[in-house]
Design brief:
Strand content of chain A: 15-25%
Domain ABC transporter (chain A): 4-244, 265-506
EC number (chain A): 3.6.3.17
Oligomer: heterodimer
CATH class of the domain at 4-247 in chain A: Alpha Beta
Structural class of chain B: mainly alpha
Largest sheet of chain A: 6 strands, mixed
Helix content of chain A: 25-40%
Distance between the termini of chain A: 37 Å
Keywords (chain A): ATP-binding, Hydrolase, Nucleotide-binding, Repeat, Sugar transport, Transport
Enzyme class (chain A): hydrolase
GO molecular function (chain A): ATP binding; ATP hydrolysis activity
Shape of chain A: elongated
Number of helices of chain B: 15
CATH architecture of the domain at 4-247 in chain A: 3-Layer(aba) Sandwich
Radius of gyration of chain B: 20 Å
Distance between the termini of chain B: 24 Å
Strand order of the largest sheet of chain A: 6-9-10-3-11-12
């Protein structure tokens, strides 16, 4: 009998189906890896086990008994311990206190038993003796720790729950090799003690090093479970890719021109970046040729967004060489880069784009003001400028004076994009621009982007939707752990190659 | 005028309702209603002479509220609690510089504008570079100004208004209206033009509605915010000079009475405390309304403390009203 079993679990948010058919079976004494592409539903699956999301249908069984998990407290009582990817630590408290935080040992009902707490801390810190690094100790406040040390504390906290089922959601992302290996040793020990472990990772090498079985989720459905000795990384990626690869119609026909364009010298490139490093990315280099759409791919949050924001000047702390049409560009801030002809379109339009409740006209004009150093806003003249830009995107709106908030999400994003089109930019940085907009708006947007590229504007497109990237980018840089690990061009642009590069060890 | 655009999109049926519920229309109706009420309580309340006097007082408040309006429009909890201190300080500085002589008017105006803008600059720096919340920053500045006033008044006399200044504020100048009314009208026109027809104005709304988006669109957010606080200080100092002309000589904390009413006038005029929308036309109506309300309260013998209570309640009721409208739309 399985220690933990999920049968046909599903969850929908309105019309969006996050998880269609989740099936998962964890035996006592096994490490079970869970893998799936961006948005495949694996985090929803975990949240259901963790009790933070209630499934619409299906069953969760522990030791063969159907249970309803109601929130984090209940999770502990049911014997489930979870490591959260976004660490859940009390920053101002000590390592020892954080380790015992979910279950503080008590004396007389209300007092914290500090001796017991110190014992628990010492036991777990000893597990990582020799690899935790300098400055790590039971009495150190978490805020003074390095990121890898903080991640170790989260791991210790999860282990300290002594739960029979442990879930680790990307527990090794900040760890160095020695720390990760020690962690795997500890997992093997727990496994021998009969603990069932769910291990989520994007690193194929880790999965094959530690897991006994692997389950693949694709488009919200469990598509297969295999014993690790019966499979190999290619087979796993094929499972993740599924029918898409068979169809193989994702990539546009190879025009043969991209490689030629790509190899043009940096002097001819619209945008050339060399040795670019900053928060979340390291040593990035690429060149965008005129007429080229350069794609950024890979798993979510591997540095793609950070690179685009840093080039635009909205992310301080980056260094390296950027050349725009051959001239050096100092990304000191959006004002400076906009004046030089940079455009940046964020996927988070509500935060970065829309000037809420203001008229549509005021939402289209700010870049025009800046590029032309205008002081006066002449409504009639501005309307004449804004109309063709909105028209180019087939924006549906009733009047320039209507508040932008009266439009649909897709049309709001079109208004935000239109502000960059009145005065043609030299380069357009698209940071997952189609997030949350409808299909027809996406089609309008990509048709326009291709036209702009043909006009000679350099385009960099990051998309979290692989299909979008494969269909629109001439070349794809695959990001992995803040670096570009592969460049796919021409016929190499397939979903299989994209996944392979994204899931390889960095 | 500004309010009409905000209601765009309402159908023909909703349009009538939209017009009736517009802050500007509501304020105008209330002004007429309060005048009728005042006349009923005390015959002669709504006489031409009396209305003129009310307008002069309203102009003083309205000029302070112009700066307050700009700071509030700029969003991020923007508010300027130090305006009262700047009004008082300017009145003293101006009184001493002109000391009853017309020749001192120009230096006094320049010195006061510089003083107001300077304290506004400090407010702006504190809010942007030091990231102090505007409420705390400007309240602290008010404390500094009040202390400064105490020190100053120990050393120098209160000073006297120049005759030309008093005349400007109290004597008819054009079409039977004194200069200060015309100054206020001019400020109203300039404010409306600035907010609607200049890039600076559009940027004020942009940083008020979504600061992050404005930054990403190349708006110099910090410089803008500092400029708004400086303008607020400058408007308060203009009001301080006019107040000196109105009362003949300055006295301690003469400007204290402007802090709360300047905020109420702005909110009454349709600019929510969260910023990003609204305008000055409504604020002008709000200022007139408040002055009439104050006058009625005086007429029925409610003392200063009673008036303070009524004003405080008015602001809270207004915030309840507008706050609810915003939450429902979000």
């Amino acid at each position: 009998m399985a220690k933990l079993e999920l049968r046909g679990v599903g969850k929908a948010y309105g019309a969006t189906v996050a998880l269609r058919q989740g099936d998962l079976e964890i035996e006592a004494g096994e490490v079970h890896a869970l893998i799936g592409a961006n948005g495949s539903g694996k985090s929803t699956l975990c949240k259901i086990v963790a009790g933070s999301v209630r499934p619409d249908r299906g069953e969760v069984l522990i030791d063969g008994r159907a249970v309803t998990v109601r929130g984090p407290e209940a999770t502990g009582a049911l014997g489930i311990g979870i490591f959260y990817q976004e660490l859940s630590l009390a920053r101002h408290r000590t390592v020892a206190e954080n380790i015992s935080l979910p279950r503080l040992p008590r004396k007389g009902g209300i007092f914290v038993d500090r001796a017991a707490m110190a014992a628990i801390a010492d036991r777990h810190i000893a597990l990582f003796a020799g690899v935790a690094g300098a400055g790590f100790g039971a009495d150190v406040p978490v805020e003074r720790l390095r990121p890898d040390q903080a991640q170790l504390v989260e791991i210790m906290k999860t282990l300290a729950s002594e739960a029979a089922i442990l879930i680790f959601d990307e527990p090794t992302s900040a760890l160095d090799r020695a720390q990760a290996e020690r962690f795997f040793e500890i997992l093997r020990e727990r496994k021998r003690a009969g603990v069932g472990i769910i291990f989520i990772s994007h690193r194929m090498d880790e999965i094959f090093a530690i897991a006994d079985r692997v389950t693949v989720i694709r488009d919200g459905e469990t598509v297969g479970t295999a014993r690790i000795e019966d499979t190999d990384p290619t087979a796993v990626i094929n499972l993740m890719v599924g029918r898409h690869e068979a169809a193989s119609a994702d990539a546009p026909p190879d025009t043969g021109g991209e490689d030629g364009r790509a190899s043009q010298s940096a002097a001819q490139a619209v945008l050339a970046v060399r040795g670019f490093s900053g928060p979340g990315f390291r040593d990035i280099g690429f060149a965008v040729a005129p007429g080229e759409i350069l794609g950024f791919g890979g798993l979510h949050g591997q540095g793609q967004s950070a690179v685009l924001r840093a080039i635009f000047g909205a992310l301080p702390g980056a260094s390296g060489e950027i050349r725009l049409n051959g001239d050096a560009l100092q990304p000191t801030g959006p004002r400076a880069t906009i004046a030089r002809g940079c455009a940046y379109i964020s996927g988070d339009r509500s935060r970065d784009g829309v000037i809420h409740e203001r008229p549509i006209l005021e939402n289209v004009t700010p870049i025009h003001f800046l590029r032309n150093r205008l002081g006066l806003a002449h409504p009639a003249r501005l309307r004449d400028k804004a109309a063709p830009a909105l028209e180019a995107l087939k924006t549906k709106f009733a009047g320039f004076g209507h508040p932008v908030s009266s439009l649909s999400g897709g049309n709001q994003q079109k208004v935000v994009i239109a502000r960059w089109l009145i005065d043609r930019p030299a380069v357009i940085l698209l940071d997952d621009p189609t997030k949350g907009i409808d299909l027809s708006a996406k089609a309008d947007l990509f048709a326009l982007i291709r036209d702009l590229a043909d006009e000679g504007i350099g385009i960099v497109l990051y998309s979290s939707e692989d299909a979008e990237l494969l269909a629109n980018a001439d070349r794809i840089l695959v990001f992995n752990g803040g670096r570009v690990t592969r460049v796919l061009s021409g016929a190499e642009r397939t979903r299989h190659n994209l996944y392979r590069a994204a899931y390889e060890a960095a | 005028m500004s309010a009409v655009d905000l209601q765009g999109g309402a159908g023909p049926g909703g349009r009538v309702l939209a017009i009736v519920t517009q802050p500007l229309v509501v304020a105008t109706l209330l002004i007429v209603g309060l005048l009728v009420l005042g006349e009923a309580i005390s015959p002669g309340f709504a006489s031409a002479q009396q209305i003129l006097r009310l307008l002069i007082v309203a102009a003083l408040l309205g000029i302070v509220a112009a700066g307050q309006n700009l700071v509030i429009l700029g969003g991020r909890e923007g508010i300027d609690l130090s305006v009262g201190g700047v009004v008082s300080l300017s009145a003293i500085v101006a009184g001493n510089l002109m000391n009853g002589q017309d020749g001192g008017i120009v230096p006094a105006i320049l010195a006061c504008l510089a003083t107001g803008a300077f304290f506004g600059l400090l407010n702006g720096i504190g809010v942007t570079l030091l990231r102090i919340p505007p409420l705390v920053m400007t309240l602290g500045m008010l404390g500094v100004l009040q202390g400064l006033l105490v020190v100053i008044r120990q050393g120098i006399p209160s000073g006297l208004a120049a005759p030309a200044l008093s005349e400007f504020v109290t004597r008819p100048f054009l079409f039977g209206l004194p200069g200060i009314i015309w100054l206020w009208v001019a400020i109203g026109l300039v404010m409306a033009f600035m907010l609607k027809r200049t890039v600076f104005g559009h940027r004020i709304y942009a940083i008020g509605a979504n600061e992050q988006a404005a930054y990403m669109a190349g708006v110099p957010v910090r410089r803008m915010r500092i400029a708004l606080f400086m303008l607020s200080g400058a408007f308060a100092s203009v009001a301080g000079i006019c107040l000196l002309g109105y009362s003949g000589s300055s006295f301690a904390n003469v400007g204290e009475q402007y802090m709360l009413p300047s905020i109420i006038a702005v909110v009454f005029g349709g600019t929510p405390l969260s910023g990003g929308k609204g305008g000055y036309t409504g604020t002008m109506a709000g200022a007139i309304l408040l002055v009439i309300l104050q006058s009625i309260l005086t007429t029925v013998n409610i003392d200063e403390s009673g008036r303070q209570i009524v004003f405080g309640m008015t602001l809270l009721v207004l915030l309840l009203f507008y706050g609810r409208g915003r939450a429902m739309r979000a």
